[in-house]
Amino acid sequence: MGLGPTLDTSEPLVLLNQTTRWNPFAMVPADSHRKVLAEMDLFSNHENKVAAIKKENFHVNEHDDINTGLNLVTHDRSSMGDGISSTEDENPTTNKLAKMQNELQKMNMENLKLKEMYIEVSNNYNALQMELVTLMQQQQQEQHTLRNASLDQQAAPKQLLELTSRDSSSEEKTLSASKNVVAAREDTPDSDAWTSNKAPKLTVPENTDEATMRKVRVSVRARSEASMISDGCQWRKYGQKMAKGNPCPRAYYRCTMAVGCPVRKQVQRLAEDQTILVTTYEGTHSHPLPPAAVAMASTTSAAATMLLSGSMSSAEHGFMNPNLLAQAIRPSSSSIATISASAPFPTVTLDLTHPPNNFQKVNSTAFEGHPSSQYIPSAAAMPLQAFHPGMYNQSRFAGFQLSHDKVSNQLIPHQIAPPQHQSQQPQTAFANSLSAITSDPNFTAALAAAITSIMGGNNANNESNNNNTH
DNA sequence: CGAGTTTGACCTGCGC
DNA sequence: GCGCAGGTCAAACTCG
Ligand SMILES: [Zn+2]
């Protein structure tokens, strides 16, 4: 929280730059700025709003920067002026040098402190996130157990069927998957391929849930001219295919931030609107992530969890109560996230492109009339649409604007701000919705993650890692 | 020279 | 069984 302001009041430029270099997570190449331009705009649609918001804060920040900068400069100049007035040529320069060195040392010290703070916050954040995911998974498992028990009795695995929207053939898969029995998933080709390929690395204990999660896909639609949106991760392209019914090729990437990370993504432009980039994520990272990447990653995993939980519990627990959703949507009634069990993978679609209407397409595709398709408010889009400048937490917003300052994307930890924080804000309408939404932990996670993904997504512009653009 | 991309071959599942 | 489509592999290539 205090990081932003703290940074602002210290020497931002130096700090930011050094932080950029220091940050172990920062995969920002030296020429990142170039790529920023090349790869922009995960949310270009909201450019105006974002820009507006951004600017406001930007100004504040800018002023801070300018102030501090001026202070420094003033110091220098005053000292220089003294030197000049004393008509000495060497002393002033040496004095100046000494002062500058002093300043530099101070900066370094402060930088160090900030680094430590950042590391701590970052670690805390990651730990919290892990905890959250674990909790969610545990919750799921409990639900699964309960459901399976009841299913065994009823012999009518309806909810599970919803997941795959396949016929009886897929029943077993789904069942086995939801039972968290990885080994039992012998007949799912995709997972097989992925697990077998990644076999050496997939020693991850959470394998069971991961296998399930890996089946779940989270696709993000965003307007972008770039060949790929940056999400804070490092990706390596391993294939490209012409997809049927789409003049644009589909590119396949896998995460290279850690050897054996099972996360993959597909990037493809929409046939109907080639300015829209559809990025589909699959899997969960098996390694620590930079904040920017955490945002998207947690969005993915949370959304996946949400989908599973939602699909499975919707019947009984009323997860994602439509009314509640409607309430949640209202303030930002434009962008929509869709949960769809369309074959072959259950998919959550975050539509960060324009307003309405779009989501209907997604939903209607290849869907066999299963009721598991649910509309949920696009958590990611909400902040853009509904947040007012005042609603942003200082820290997160600081991160946001900093990122647009193109100085550094890593300085501010993109915390998944507890939604409670947001409801603390005076603005009522959205806060109400938020608090309503927050009643569901899964959605909370997704929401929070998605919110941070806004920051992260924008921030991540600094750290594009694909060389496709050149 | 290593890391990443390109691209044709290959594998697998699915529908006919 | 065959063809198609989605997905992956891996050799060749490019780039810094
Ligand atoms: Zn990864």
UniProtKB/TrEMBL annotation:
<feature type="compositionally biased region" description="Basic and acidic residues">
    <location>
        <begin position="164"/>
        <end position="174"/>
    </location>
</feature>
<feature type="domain" description="WRKY">
    <location>
        <begin position="224"/>
        <end position="290"/>
    </location>
</feature>
<dbReference type="InterPro" id="IPR003657">
    <property type="entry name" value="WRKY_dom"/>
</dbReference>
<protein>
    <submittedName>
        <fullName>Putative WRKY domain-containing protein</fullName>
    </submittedName>
</protein>
<dbReference type="InterPro" id="IPR036576">
    <property type="entry name" value="WRKY_dom_sf"/>
</dbReference>
<keyword id="KW-0805">Transcription regulation</keyword>
<keyword id="KW-0539">Nucleus</keyword>
<keyword id="KW-0804">Transcription</keyword>
<keyword id="KW-0238">DNA-binding</keyword>
<dbReference type="GO" id="GO:0043565">
    <property type="term" value="F:sequence-specific DNA binding"/>
</dbReference>
<dbReference type="Pfam" id="PF03106">
    <property type="entry name" value="WRKY"/>
</dbReference>
<dbReference type="GO" id="GO:0005634">
    <property type="term" value="C:nucleus"/>
</dbReference>
<comment type="similarity">
    <text>Belongs to the WRKY group II-b family.</text>
</comment>
<dbReference type="InterPro" id="IPR044810">
    <property type="entry name" value="WRKY_plant"/>
</dbReference>
<feature type="region of interest" description="Disordered">
    <location>
        <begin position="163"/>
        <end position="210"/>
    </location>
</feature>
<dbReference type="GO" id="GO:0003700">
    <property type="term" value="F:DNA-binding transcription factor activity"/>
</dbReference>
